[in-house]
């Protein structure tokens, strides 16, 4: 059986593709692992920005690929407001690669109840929300779950810059932290608001 298609979701800001190195690395690691392709693709050579993209608007560039790029799509991006998270078990979920098929994640998201999103727990450890990695602040340093569902490109960049520190974090550890940030390719780390830890505990039990 052939592996299902995967995605890269890139941020286009000021008509520039952002964080290209991390996206290229993940795309080519995935192509090698799933399709045994040794050649390297460069997204800046594959993706052509259409003329209608406005410099003042942020866009999401969605690249669907298998052994080769299959489809490139663009849409305007607007930040989704998240003010509360529900802790939810996701044991057995495998999202090592960024598959185009998100049905398992969408089914978990549908269980969020009154919360804005879910914070998934696998094998007793915090992982990700339905669409973002997370970082937790202890008052001096930012920590990110050491074993996320998906190793995101923004997470990779912030780890390289030593802004984030990989840590095994259990739900019972949450009171040791002051706040949480969401991070993915589309969210500007410097502009992303910090969520109060109480907004996780109050909706997570």
From TrEMBL:
<protein>
    <recommendedName>
        <fullName>4-amino-4-deoxychorismate lyase</fullName>
    </recommendedName>
</protein>
<dbReference type="InterPro" id="IPR001544">
    <property type="entry name" value="Aminotrans_IV"/>
</dbReference>
<dbReference type="InterPro" id="IPR043131">
    <property type="entry name" value="BCAT-like_N"/>
</dbReference>
<dbReference type="GO" id="GO:0003824">
    <property type="term" value="F:catalytic activity"/>
</dbReference>
<dbReference type="InterPro" id="IPR036038">
    <property type="entry name" value="Aminotransferase-like"/>
</dbReference>
<dbReference type="InterPro" id="IPR043132">
    <property type="entry name" value="BCAT-like_C"/>
</dbReference>
<dbReference type="Pfam" id="PF01063">
    <property type="entry name" value="Aminotran_4"/>
</dbReference>
